[in-house]
């Protein structure tokens, strides 16, 4: 095979829960596809085959940039069943997956293609020292280094053990969304009112009508609020009265922990990957965790703005994933 383009150091090295990880952003994956564009075009492939779901982003980038047909292979990890389109009339393809890992996905799909007389070269975003297969194209991680992709946010637990458990949990939710309460579902009363007369302000808050629900809200989404657990009963009554049914309601146990720190800890602990926050300062703080997509939501506009935090410095611990002081 011809010499491949030099990849350099794609991705951002991070330290998460004491483990070295390399975050491959969407732009890194696009760069990988574009770097190999001419090389792939010269290989004479009939099609690009992306393995759903992890391999589809890279496969789409490759197919789009090379003008090759895109085909999709579906793989069931439980049964190890591979489904290919019946009209799969090709002889040589580029099989694309996100990672060459220690599982069976690439081996099983490649074997299925072989039974149909289809030869396959393999392209991945990356492989590591646990990989069971050596890909033809892809970034080779350093010994002991592991990958992390944007679509694996739900697998970023606060500790190594939790993250490894979630990565192997086939029932782990792919995407869990949570919302702030005050400022999103109900008007946020001034803090000074609580200091002047706590009980009067709480009673006034109980009588407030709900704001228009965020268009992104679905019954069963979670609510993570800076309210105290001492307010849980009256909070649940208000939610029930107005027909708001969260899958789970998480409130602060005490005032010692700042609201933004509590929310960040809950998002990390429960693998919540998307959060709508009404307070801009809190949203910016929470967005320091690269595992969470944070939106600043203003009820007056009802159009959230994503908080794009700068990537953590290389080899520096991620804000919430490796700070033992805020683990549950």
From TrEMBL:
Gene3D superfamilies according to UniProt: 3.40.50.2020
SUPFAM superfamilies: PRTase-like
Region (Disordered): 306-328
Keywords: Glycosyltransferase, Transferase
Record-level Gene Ontology MF annotations: glycosyltransferase activity
Location of the Phosphoribosyltransferase domain: 41-131
Entries under Pfam families matching the protein: Pribosyltran
Protein name: Orotate phosphoribosyltransferase
């Amino acid at each position: 095979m011809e010499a491949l383009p030099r990849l350099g150091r794609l991705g951002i090295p991070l330290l998460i829960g004491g483990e070295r990880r390399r975050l491959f952003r969407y732009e890194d994956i696009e760069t990988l596809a574009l770097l190999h564009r001419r090389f792939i075009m010269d290989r004479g492939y009939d099609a690009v085959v992306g393995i759903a779901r992890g391999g589809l982003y890279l496969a789409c980038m490759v197919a789009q940039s090379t003008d090759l047909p895109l085909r999709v292979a579906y793989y069931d990890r439980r049964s190890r069943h591979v489904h290919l389109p019946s009209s799969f009339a090709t002889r040589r393809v580029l099989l694309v997956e996100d990672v060459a890992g220690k599982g069976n996905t690439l081996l099983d799909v490649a074997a299925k293609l072989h039974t149909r007389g289809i030869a396959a070269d393999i392209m991945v975003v990356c492989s590591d020292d646990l990989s069971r297969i050596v890909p033809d194209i892809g970034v080779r991680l350093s010994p002991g280094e592991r990958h992390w992709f944007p679509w694996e946010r739900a697998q970023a637990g606060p500790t190594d053990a939790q993250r490894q458990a979630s990565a192997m949990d086939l029932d782990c939710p792919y995407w869990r969304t949570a919302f702030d309460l005050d400022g999103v579902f109900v008007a946020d009363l001034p803090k000074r009112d609580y200091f002047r007369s706590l009980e009067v302000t709480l009673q006034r808050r109980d009588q407030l009508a709900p704001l228009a629900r965020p268009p992104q809200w679905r019954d069963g989404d979670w609510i993570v609020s800076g309210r105290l657990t001492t307010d849980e009963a009256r909070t649940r009554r208000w939610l029930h009265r107005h027909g708001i049914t969260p899958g789970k309601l998480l409130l602060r146990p005490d005032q010692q922990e700042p609201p933004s720190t509590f929310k960040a800890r809950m998002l990390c602990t429960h693998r919540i990957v998307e959060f709508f926050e009404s307070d801009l300062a809190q949203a910016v703080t929470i967005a320091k965790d690269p595992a969470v997509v944070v939106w600043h939501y203003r009820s007056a506009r009802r159009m959230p703005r994503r908080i794009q935090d700068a990537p953590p410095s290389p080899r520096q611990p991620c804000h919430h994933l490796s700070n033992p002081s805020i683990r549950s």
